[in-house]
Structures are given as C-alpha cells and as structure tokens.
C-alpha cells in the first residue's frame, strides 16, 4: 500500500521493507528485520504436533511442514510486501498450507497468535518480549526466512521538499 501511495504521489516518503525492484524509487536503509512464525505452546499442543517441551520442538525441524499443513496460518493481506516475501518463501520451499487467515496489520497478527488462534508470521523484533517470557514459541524452519532491509523509500523522479531532504540526510548520517 505504501508503494502504491508513493507511485500515485499521495505521499512523499514511506517506511517499507526493501522490494526486489525499486522502479522509480530511491531507498535509504535504516535497519534489518527478521520474519518468523510464532504460536502459543497450547495451540501447538492442541495440534498434537508438539511435545510438552519447547526444546524438543526446536530440535525437531521436520515438524514445521506438518504445522503449516495443519494450522491456521495467519498472514498479512496479499498485497503486503511481507506477504509477497512469505508467499515466495512458501513456493520456493514447497511449503503447503491449507488454512490461511489474512489479517490487515502486524499488531492483529501478534494478538491473534497470543490468544491461540493459530500460527502467525510476525517480525521477530516486535515479539521479542513474548518470546522471552514464553507467551509465544518460535516455529523452527528447515530453511531460514533470512533478514530483510527496511528503510525509507521516496520517488527519484520528483523534486523533494527541503524537509524530506533533511530527513533523508539525517538517516544517511546515522548510517555512516
């Protein structure tokens, strides 16, 4: 949606995950994120795919394919950059899902996972506390999703306002 708003000149700058193709955009990286799949321990136990200890789950990578096939997999909507990234991962790694629930934002994905509605794909940095406290369990993958760059995107075909130029310069200075 942010890319669409940039293309239609409805916004001047947007914070996004770096797309494969930048088209008429410049990208100022500000950090990395890592997408992971999480669920509650009780949800996994109800699927009968998890032993009683999270440690055994972490050591049993074969289970992730069974989890995705059996679970309610909660993802962002199909136009979202993260969703496109996850769909590409599923295709390349032949991951089968039978039940996908589309959600409009990351906060809902996190809350739905916390109340035990299924397995959510979330940004690890957003659920670090829940992982540490054991509220959510990370689903180990046979092949990691890897980290992605996030940053500010802006059109390179239009003159930028002075405030946008200063904003970009500020982040470029932080990166140096």
Strand content: 25-35%
> How many helices?
8
Number of strands: 7
Mean pLDDT: 85
Explained architecture:
- By secondary structure, the chain is of the alpha/beta class.
- The chain has eight helices and seven strands.
- The chain has helices at residues 2-7, 41-46, 54-59, 63-70, 81-92, 106-114, 128-132, 162-175, and strands at residues 13-17, 25-39, 72-76, 99-103, 119-123, 137-138, 147-155.
- Strands 1, 2, 3, 4, 5, 6 and 7 form a seven-stranded mixed β-sheet that branches.
- The longest helix is centred in the C-terminal third of the chain and has 14 residues, at 162-175.
- The two termini are 30 Å apart.
- 21% of the residues are buried.
List the helices and strands and how they pair.
Layout: H1 2-7, E1 13-17, E2 25-39, H2 41-46, H3 54-59, H4 63-70, E3 72-76, H5 81-92, E4 99-103, H6 106-114, E5 119-123, H7 128-132, E6 137-138, E7 147-155, H8 162-175
Descriptive keywords:
alpha/beta; seven-stranded mixed β-sheet; 38% helix; elongated; single chain; 176 residues; 8 helices
Summary, kept brief:
The protein has 176 residues and is α/β, with parallel strands linked by helices. The chain has 8 helices and 7 strands; from the N terminus they run H-E-E-H-H-H-E-H-E-H-E-H-E-E-H.
